[in-house]
UniProtKB/TrEMBL annotation:
GO biological process terms on file: transmembrane transport
One of the record's GO cellular component terms: plasma membrane
Family to which this protein belongs: Belongs to the binding-protein-dependent transport system permease family.
Top-level division of the source organism's lineage: Bacteria
Chief location category: membrane
Compartments reported by the entry: Cell membrane
Keywords: Cell membrane, Membrane, Transmembrane, Transmembrane helix, Transport
Residue ranges constituting the ABC transmembrane type-1 domain according to the UniProt record: 69-258
Record's bilayer topology term: Multi-pass membrane protein
Membrane-spanning residues: 12-31, 73-94, 106-128, 134-154, 237-258
Protein name per Swiss-Prot or TrEMBL: Carbohydrate ABC transporter permease
InterPro entries: MetI-like (IPR000515), MetI-like_sf (IPR035906)
Keyword Phosphoprotein included in the entry's annotation: no
Length: 273
């Protein structure tokens, strides 16, 4: 390695470290501030002079925050499982099966990525109202299952499958469903693991649709719970930060558990056509 290459690599490493520090600092500040008493939570110091866990005790005893987290976990888990199943089937059909209208269907699905969520919020609310889905788990789950990004990413992944595997399975008498279930899904573990993180994270952080579609406290999700903390305890940032820290921990754990699969899926999916 030449001196120029070493200098360039060192420079890129320094830039990556700086950007990583900038990204991590807000999370670190949130976690350390959640351990501070109320009178010192805004003192501007990263390391707390006095550590207390009373903020977390208050969050779980005075507010049904465990219920909020359960709602978010249940809704996110069901949406993620359903989305992975239906998206993988749709993507496999769009990538490997030949039928009339395949390309227009894919382009129509892909075009929905250009439509922002606020545009469809009111029509979605009216449809959910007519179907009596408001203020229910079904109303929170069903509208969130479809995700054009998941279908697109899986289709790109399936386009790289060697056709010899499918042809060998067809020679052995396997149909499309058997090929999908016994061959395609097991080979899709990296991309499915990455999409698990993306889908779960997106629905765990969902705020606007749960706010519009629900009014019962029994269906309150974690992000609405944190928002209610900001309304009720506007000056008690120790409670707000404690609630936010608790809500962030599952996502951090999920990301670190699947970070290798995320990188591998991005490397292997590519932009095939």
């Amino acid at each position: 390695m030449t001196a120029e290459n070493r200098a360039r690599r060192t420079g890129l490493t320094v830039v990556a470290i700086v950007l990583s520090a900038i990204t991590v600092f807000p999370v670190l500040w949130m976690a350390t501030s959640s351990l501070k008493p109320r009178d010192s939570v805004t003192d501007g110091q990263l390391i707390p002079r006095e550590v207390t866990f009373d903020n977390f005790v208050y969050v779980f005893t005075e507010v049904p925050f465990a219920r909020y987290m359960w709602n978010s976990f249940f809704i996110s888990a069901v949406i993620t499982l359903a989305a992975l199943l239906f998206h993988s089937m749709a993507a496999y059909a769009l990538a490997r099966l030949k039928f009339p209208g395949r390309e227009p269907i894919f382009l129509s699905i892909f075009a929905t990525l250009l439509v922002s969520a606020p545009v469809v919020l009111i029509p979605l609310f009216l449809v959910a109202k007519e179907l009596h889905l408001l203020d229910s788990y079904a109303g929170l789950i069903i509208p969130a299952i479809f995700n054009a990004f998941g279908i697109f990413l899986l289709r790109q992944f399936y386009l790289g499958f060697p056709r010899e595997i499918e042809e060998a399975a067809i020679v052995d008498g396997a149909g499309h469903w058997r090929i999908y279930w016994s061959i395609v899904l097991p080979m899709s573990k990296p991309i499915l693991a990455a999409l698990t993180v993306f889908f779960f994270l997106a629905n765990w952080n969902a705020f606007v649709w749960p706010l519009v579609a629900t009014s019962s406290e029994e269906l309150t999700v974690v992000q609405l719970g944190i928002a209610s903390f900001q309304t009720q305890y506007a000056s008690s940032w120790n409670y707000i930060l404690a609630a936010a820290t608790v809500a962030a921990l599952p996502m951090l754990a999920l990301f670190f558990a699947f970070q290798r699969q995320i990188v591998e899926s991005i490397k292997t999916s590519g932009m095939k056509s």
